[in-house]
Design a protein that fits this description.
CATH superfamily of the largest domain: Periplasmic binding protein-like II
Number of domains: 2
Distance between the termini: 66 Å
Strand content: 25-35%
Number of strands: 10
Radius of gyration: 21 Å
CATH topology of the largest domain: D-Maltodextrin-Binding Protein, domain 2
Helix content: 25-40%
CATH class of the largest domain: Alpha Beta
Order of helices and strands: HEEEHEHEEHEHEHEHEHH
Amino acid sequence: MNRYVVIITISLFLSLRGASAAEDLTIYTEPLAPVHFEQDGHIVGIATEIVREIVRRAGYTAHFEMYPWNRAYYLVQKNPDSLIYTLNRTRKREHLFKWIGPILHKKTYLYKLRGRDDIQLKNFEDAKEFTTAVILGHSLTLQLKDLGFHDGKQIIITSNKTIQTKVFLEKRCDLITGNEYTIYRAMQAAGLTMEAVKPALLLGSSSYYLGASLNTSDMVVNRLQKASQSLLDSRFTQDVIRKYMNQ
């Protein structure tokens, strides 16, 4: 009898230990203001606050780390109980992650400088007549490559949003990728307003997601998903958007 009690006790201990370990999540992201960026030594931003609230509501704790996108993308697929944001959910990525979200809606455009009346785009083929600054590893960059956009001719690949914006504003390219959040902050950081740019082509209306490594437990993912559903389109999300878009 005592032997069975000991076995049950050990099993319960190991189970609780595993559950506790799963609560300590590592979450990776990249600098992409105002969605996620570093300020005064802390990782902040619209999506960051949403993800922190998702984690809190799910009852977990998390450690956030910021890297260039390709590095963050590599680490999340390598390490257990880790996640990455913000992810565009694409066909090529579908089997690489366990998906949580959507966490934030967005509209993605090719933008041009206001006054570039020579740029009139109806589709991707029209865009091939010009040069677009893109960011290394981003899903849109991969999409443009798949559509036949060539590096150095139709696209200029940069390492982050700051360099991408610099290339665009220095007129070393004709177009820049962005959404309503990132283009606003990019222009603001350059001392400009949204009057400096104009949408040239709507690329799509979609959402950002939080992606979990495949070796993250389904229990953790399900709890995060339930927390995410409670936040989308909520007052919390709208207040966070206003907070960063009004800075």
